[in-house]
Amino acid sequence: MKTDLNKKYLPLTILCIIVLFALVILIDPVGPLEGKIDPIFGLYVSRIIKISAVYAICALSMNMVNGFTGLFSLGQPGFMAIGAYTCALLTLTPEAKQAVFYLEPIAPFLANIHAPFIVAMIVGGIFAAIGAFIIGFPVLRLKGDYLAIASLGFSEIIRVICVNAQSITNGANGINKIPTDITALLIFVVLAVVTIFMLVMMKTSYGRALLSIREDEVAAQAMGINLFKHKMIAFVISGFLAGIAGAMLASIVGAIDPKQFMFTLAYTLLLMVVLGGQGSISGSIVGAFIVTIAQEVLRFVDEPINIGPIHYPGISGMRMVVFSILLMCIILFWSRGIFGNKEFSWNRLFGKKAKSKLKKEGGEA
Questions:
Q1: Using the 8-state DSSP alphabet, how is residue 126 labeled?
Q2: Residues with Cβ within 8 Å of residue 216, at least 6 apart in sequence
Q3: Top-level class of domain 2-28+40-351
Q4: What's the pTM value of the predicted model, to 2 decimals?
Q5: 274: confidence class by pLDDT, cuts 50, 70, 90
Q6: DSSP secondary structure letter of residue 107
Q7: Residues contacting residue 283 through CB under 8 Å, at least 6 positions apart
Q8: Per-residue b/e over 163-202, b at no fewer than 16 CB within 10 Å?
């Protein structure tokens, strides 16, 4: 019966993939369409969609540790900062570096290094993975809140280094003039690759070992699973994914500074994971899009509003207050999130009616 249901929804899956691919092309026209057609949603909406996809990768990286392994890590902003600064330093031309680093000259070993974006993104991910490997040795021996505090402390250390390493990161001024030629197609291709990788990985023996660690570490260890090794691999993969997400974010925005990677970003990413459902890959993606888009939609509460005789003067930052209250209500009354620890499937969406119909047809036969 399950096979019949899957076959029934195969055309719908193919149709959705085609529609999604067409929309991605129109979000940010590339190739023969570039320069001949404007983005279908406008530049502002196109940018928000691209940022949402990048945050979806970040949420997946956090879910790798928090959702599947059962750890509580908040170090994602630090890994993103490593990827973002690495990408910025590699993609800037030597001339642009001289213009950006005007308060203090850039370090000589970085002055003439230049690489295309794809290379810079991968190198940024590798450096972030190395950072995860180095801090993994001390912090992964901790549990619960202690691990969260230690990983968050690492993230803050990276941010403080970015503020003070003037000749490498340009200090508090940050780095601008970053090439912004990254396309929506590339971002969504990376998101698709990461999603497929995680879906396949969780069906392997390694993925099942991670789930067993999440459910009961003592039982998993008794079954011969090396807890530290599996946690370390998950932590390093998580760092790599956050690093490439940070690199793509730098290319979209075109400028980075240490304030972008404050501890509040860790809470936002955690919110995406919890809203979508811890342990759900599709949930992390949906949660990332909802949270990112909602933050933009709620900007109107920061501006003055006139409703008849009532005048609301507008309070800067009020959107975050409203957004936090709404999400707290969702988490309090819907603690498992949108998907829980399950994945999206047509069977879950339409399954009841289809199953009853198949059962009826089978009974008549």
A1: H
A2: none
A3: mainly alpha
A4: 0.87
A5: confident
A6: P
A7: 273, 275, 276, 277, 337, 338, 339, 340, 343, 344
A8: eeebebbbbebbbbbbbeebbbbbbbebbeebbeebeebb
At residue 35, the pLDDT reads: 52
Angle at 225 between CA 220 and CA 228, to 5 degrees: 100
Strand partners, 311: 306
Q: Tokens representing 342?
A: 């399950």
CA 178, distance to chain mean position in Å, is 21
Cβ(120)–Cβ(86) below 8 Å: yes
Mention every residue, 6+ apart, whose C-beta is less than 8 A from residue 39.
Answer: 26, 27, 28, 29, 45, 46
Q: Is 185:50 a contact under the CB 8 Å cutoff?
A: no
Crossing angle of helices 43-66/227-253, nearest 10°?
Answer: 170
- Encode pLDDT of 316-335 as tens digits: 777 777 777 877 777 787 77
Residue 319: CB partners within 8 Å, gap ≥ 6?
295, 298, 299, 300, 301, 302
Which runs of E-coded beta strand occur in 267-325? 305-307, 310-312
CB atoms within 10 A of CB 144: 9
Say if CB 74 and CB 119 are below 8 A apart.
Answer: no
Q: For the chain, what's the residue count? A: 365
